[in-house]
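<context>
A single protein, sequence plus fold
<sample>
Here is the protein in question:
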Amino acid sequence: MRTCSSSSSPGEIASGVTGLSTENASLAKSTTGLLVVVVDTQVTGIRLVHARLACPEVVQQENFKAANALVKQISMLAAAQGGPMRKVAGYFAEAIARRIYCHCPRPSDRTALDSPALDDLLHVHFYKSCPNLKFAHFTANQAILEAFASCRRVHVIDFGLRQGMQWPTLALRPGEPLSFHLTGIGPPQADHSNALQQVGWKLAVLAKNIGIEFHFRGFVAASLANLEPPDAAQTGERQ
């Protein structure tokens, strides 16, 4: 869809994220630092061993917050391993998770291995390791680039926004700087975190670094039927 330029809506931050509070900004920054996937199996293997050695110690000290973080780290590092190492690490993480939540029960029945944060980390690892998803994004971006070859301003509505990993490629197209407006629609998170705003923050930081105008709006909805017409009209653009 083609768009024309317009001023930002009142709650919108130019080259930034709409309605991002200071608390969410700090959380997004910290999340940005955590979303680093190491694919060197030797390095991840060493880190995996250290994490496994540290985990029983913090459990014995009843530092369950640190133990939970280590379980998530072990699960993430194990995803980069193969063969017996991966299986052993997976069983170890599951056993420690059961030990943790035996002493420190949680309100849900989900295991630590099913947490939204871990799911996002594994999705990033899958994206970096598997060429199929990258090819799909490349094909879609190429179609968008051809459709907007002569346009400086682009507005994309992503109906299933997760990590937004395909959009930096579009924003880095050759030619004059692009004004990129992204509206992301995604499902609510089990832990009630504002994942869309965190994605918007990361993209805003990238946009600032490469010198393009960027605006983001995120709408949380379990299905498109839950979106009200005024919500879609708040983008501040005529389509």
About this structure: The chain has a mean pLDDT of 65.
